[in-house]
Write the C-alpha cells for this entry.
Amino acid sequence: MKLVLATSNKGKVREIKAMCEDFEVIPYTELIDEFEIIEDADTFKDNALLKAHAVFDALDDENVIVLADDSGISVEVLDGAPGIYSARYGGDNATDKDNLHTLMRNIKAKGVDSSPAFYTAAMAIVTKTSERTVHGWMYGTALTEEQGEGGFGYDPMFVPLGYDKTLGELDDATKRKLPHRSKALSLARKILKTL
Ligand code: ITT
C-alpha cells in the first residue's frame, strides 16, 4: 500500500519509514513541490487534519492515502508551552536548535533545572472518502542541558520516564519503542489495514 506523508520534516519521515516497513512510504515532496501549509488550528488533531487535507488536495489523485503528523512538547513548569507552537517556539524561521535552546532557557528562567513534560503526536489519515485521527503520548522530564546528538528537535533535552538518558543519547531500537509517534502509528496502522 502506498502511503504519502504530508510532512517536510526529515526526522518524522525517517521515524515513520522505520516504523512502517510493510507500507510504501513516500514524503509528498517526492511527488510534488513543497508548499507552505498554514497550521492555524487550535489542536494537534486539527492541525494534522489540515495538513493531510492540504496535501491530499494538492496531489490531485483520488487513490492516494495521506498521513500527516502534528506533534510537539508540553512542559509543566511553562503551563504546557510550547505545545502546538513547538515548531516555531524560537521565532518564525527558527531551526530545531533555536527551538531547543529557547525552551531550555525558558525552563531555566523559572528557576529550575528540569520539569515534567510530555510529547504529543496526532496523526490524521485522509482518503477520498474518509478522515481518521489517532494520538500517542510520551511522558518524561525536560532538562535545561543538551545531551546527545541523536533524534531531532527537542530530543537532546528530553529524558523518557523510566530512563536516565535523553532521546538524543538512547539507541535507535529503544527510541522506536517509546515515542508518542510509534504509539500513534501503531493505531494508525490498524486503520490503514482496513482501507
Ligand atoms: P511538518 O508540519 O511538515 O510535519 P514540522 O516540523 O513543522 O513539520 P510540527 O508542526 O508537527 O512539524 O512541529 C513539531 C515540532 O515539535 C517540531 O519543532 C519538531 O522538531 C518537534 N518534535 C515533534 N516530534 C518530535 C520528536 O519525536 N522528537 C523531537 N522533537 C519533536
In short: The helical segments are 10-19, 44-59, 96-108, 172-177, 180-192. The two ends are 9 Å apart (CA to CA).
